[in-house]
Amino acid sequence: METKTKLIGREHETEKLNSMLSSGTAEFLAVYGRRRVGKTFLIRQHLKNNIVFDFTGTRDGSKEEQLKNFFDEYLKKTNTKKRIATPSTWQDAFNYLVQYLKALPKRKLKHVVFIDEMPWLDGSKSNFISALEYFWNQHVSAMDNILLIACGSASSWIKKKLINARGGLYNRITQRMKLLPFNLQETALFINTLGVKLTQFQIIEIYMAMGGIPFYLKEITKGKSATQLIDAICFSPKGLLNEEYSQLYHSLFKNADQHIKIIEALAIKPQGMPRADIARKTKLSEASLSRSLEELVECDFISFYEPLINKKKTAIYKLTDLYSLFYLKFIKTNKGGGKGTWQQLSNKSTFTAWSGYAFENICMMHISQIKKALGIAGVYSTTSSWLFKGNETLPGCQIDMIIDRADQTINLCEAKFTKENFAITKNYAAQLRLKKTIFKQATQIKKVTFNTLLTTYPALRNEYYLEEIDNEITMDKLFEPN
């Protein structure tokens, strides 16, 4: 979402921030989203003329260290000359801040207090939350010229302690903002702003390896192909994404080893796993599994897909963080490969299987663009997957993406990532026909069913295509805005 000097995209978010700046009451905004997605940059860049206090928590910092850092920022902002005591509690720290805020002049737009990485301030016995409750309830809520922003990458903490709080902060958050990774259109715009020219196919190649994470995408440089860029960023010992995985989860979660167990179990089966299979694979306790799954979903590392027919046993979790999937498939076991590693790996059979799952995930992330291309943007629909294990009359079958529409229609979607035009063979056409037959008979759904092909380049319109394919969406449609 950003370069060094300007915001890219985020129109909805900036409109929301502008609205809060000019509202007639005090505002308490919770901002959350995946690590490296651009939360801090958005706030500091868009609100740089309004921020009057900016403080960031320190990972694993003691209460004393956090308070000292807070106090140092307070002294800088207030230009305090007289000697006053460093606060020993968060209650004292917020009291200093209240005095400072009350002395600020009134103006048309609000003064902004930005507390970044707030989850890191809530250490054991810190009493941070109780102090924050008092700070808001007793003081800031009555200051109609203040916008208080709490930000953090530990989305589950933000949801539990602020948005869904049950204590003194119950129902106190006035606004919430979840920042998502860039979609393909925003990624292309970001790359273009860097002065880099790549084709849509090459952008998808990069997106499959690192997703739409601005902090990762800023490593892209001029004069290199997608293959060369992935090689430098992911496989070079000095590449940003060569070691990012090792700190990604530990920076967000307590007991991160439990989260990593789930991630690595799902990486082995990228088509997804039901909860029971994850439990067997990871051997985590029921409580640990529930908490870790919830936190991973909140932080956008994994996704939960309800089944088409409401049977909880067939609901699945999928690893949809593209970087994690790429790291575990390729980077982890090829760190010492040297220059040209990705050039070699991308020509192996393992690339074909991985790229298929990665492209499928990208299509899931761009369902609004797909619906727009199908001409059903205004039709209510749900997106799911379907797994049928088979019975005495029908063989097993899996359909990874289904659009179930309110207009009595279902799209059975097949995603195909190819480096050239895809050709449907006689055998593949037979597989599509069989899948549709099994789906209709097993579900007994009476809706009209269309086979929908999601491709990079247009498929060849041979006899098998004309027999089996009802709709085709090519990659250029995925680059449309939401």
* Main sheet attributes: strand count, strand direction, barrel closure: 5 strands, parallel
What is the C-level CATH assignment of the largest domain? Alpha Beta
CATH topology of the largest domain: Rossmann fold
Low-pLDDT segments: none
General shape = elongated
Structure commentary:
This protein is of the alpha/beta class and about 475 residues long. The chain folds into three domains: about 170 residues, P-loop containing nucleotide triphosphate hydrolases (Rossmann fold, 3-Layer(aba) Sandwich), CATH 3.40.50.300; about 80 residues, no CATH class; about 110 residues, Trna Endonuclease, Chain: A, domain 1, CATH 3.40.1350.10. It has 21 helices and twelve strands. The strands form three sheets. Strands 2-3-4-1-5 form a five-stranded parallel sheet, with helices on both faces. Strands 8-9-10-11-12 form a five-stranded mixed sheet, sandwiched between helices. Helix 3 runs parallel beside helix 4. It starts with 10 loop residues before the first helix and ends with a helix. The relative contact order is 0.09. The mean pLDDT is about 95.
Write the layout of secondary structure elements.
Layout (H helix, E strand, L loop, with lengths): L10 H11 L5 E7 L5 H8 L4 E6 L6 H16 L11 H13 L8 E6 L11 H12 L6 E7 L2 H9 L11 E5 L4 H10 L6 H11 L3 H4 L8 H10 L4 H9 L7 H13 L6 H8 L3 H13 L3 E4 L10 E4 L2 H10 L9 H5 L3 H17 L1 H8 L6 E8 L8 E9 L3 E8 L9 H18 L4 E8 L7 H6 L2 E4 H4 L4
Parallel strand pairs: 1-4, 1-5, 2-3, 3-4, 10-11, 11-12
Antiparallel strand pairs: 6-7, 8-9, 9-10
Helix pairs in contact: 3-4, 4-5, 8-10, 8-15, 8-17
